[in-house]
Amino acid sequence: MEKLIITIFLFKRVNKILENGNISSSQFTVLVTFFIIGGSILYGPTGLVHGAGQDAWIANILVLGMGLLLVLLYNALGSCFPNMTLTEYSEKIFGKWIGKVVSLLYFTYFFLSTANFVRQAGDFTTTQFMPDTPITAIHIMFFIIVIMGVRIGLEPFSRASEIFFPLVVILVLILIISLSNQIEFLRIQPVLKEGMTPVIRVAFHSLGTPYLQLVLLLMLFPYVKQTKEAKKSFLFGTLIGGIVLILITTLSILVLGSEITERHQFVSYVLARKINVGDFFQRIEAVMAIIWFITMYFKISIYFYASVLSLSQVLKLEDYRFLIYPLGIITIVLSLVVNENIVESNKQAEFWTSYSLPFGLFFPLLMLIVSKIKKINTKGE
């Protein structure tokens, strides 16, 4: 009887570890890359061009630089607590009650962002592919797949991202190469006509999507096998994703021009429609749609996983899967009311950086400073 009890205990312990996941550094790199590209590859160029005109590519380089600095901050914080998630060490740093409040604020941020991105997926699908299909049906079908991915756990989910990564790389290369014959460098001139002020302003304004959102990946950071490799993967994945966004923004300006780029909501999708090689290889906008759907799926899934995991850790639950279905239903409902239409989504984007700033910069910086002052970490308390 005693052996049976010990066996059951060990099984539960092992099963709990497997549920938490254990991913490689290469898988973490892919997840970070998909997180950066997801959503931003369609919406990003329009917002940058709106503020910086033909100098949007310079603003994109600046915002990538600021994003890499944020990743250095997240790496420093994550390496202090290599075996704990963001919500776990917030209680360790701030104390039980203040820490729980901070953790609940992060859960709210993650959860509302999940619903917001589901709404973006629904808006894109109904406006570009299925105008007669109710957006509720799109949200339900899309989020069922998200729930399936989160429920199977972090390890299988991360391995799936590696399978899709070569496909995304090939499709991005096809897009760039196919449009190379339509590039006109005169469209990027004059450079810095209005000076650096509008470029810096729009770069800071664009920091909220996606770079301040990278704080979410501190929920995955402790599950990477080696902390040192996790830090490198975080930086490398951010760099790859940022370069892709720079290329797409620059290509939009060089092929379409700043005025056309600014007018279109989904400019990258419009860009893909311009592909025409020998009047044979043309109208392959599905390439951009596939890139966006793959990367957006993984981004939303990471957000939902972090939401469920953070709440389960605040509530001290043994299994985060218990919360997947109720939170999934609430997410679908919330996605229908978070924004009524694309116009509201655009208005929301105007203050997204201000909304994300406390979560992406102030709280992590404060945590790092307090942990250093109090000399709190899991490597030596």
TrEMBL record:
Task: Tell me the keywords, alphabetical order.
Answer: Germination, Membrane, Transmembrane, Transmembrane helix, Transport
GO terms under biological process? spore germination
Q: Does the keyword Transmembrane helix apply?
A: yes
Transmembrane helix as a keyword of this entry, yes or no, is yes
Q: Which residues cross the membrane?
A: 21-44, 56-77, 97-115, 135-154, 163-183, 203-221, 233-256, 286-308, 320-339, 351-370
Q: Enumerate the subcellular locations listed in this protein's record, separating them with semicolons.
A: Membrane
Q: Which Pfam families match?
A: Spore_permease
User: Which InterPro entries did the record assign?
Assistant: Spore_GerAB
> What's an example GO cellular component term for this entry?
membrane
Q: Which topology term describes how it sits in the membrane? A: Multi-pass membrane protein
Q: Chief location of this protein?
A: membrane
Query: Which PANTHER family does this chain map to?
Result: SPORE GERMINATION PROTEIN A2
* Family affiliation: Belongs to the amino acid-polyamine-organocation (APC) superfamily. Spore germination protein (SGP) (TC 2.A.3.9) family.
**Protein's recorded name:** Endospore germination permease
Q: Which organism is it from?
A: Peribacillus castrilensis
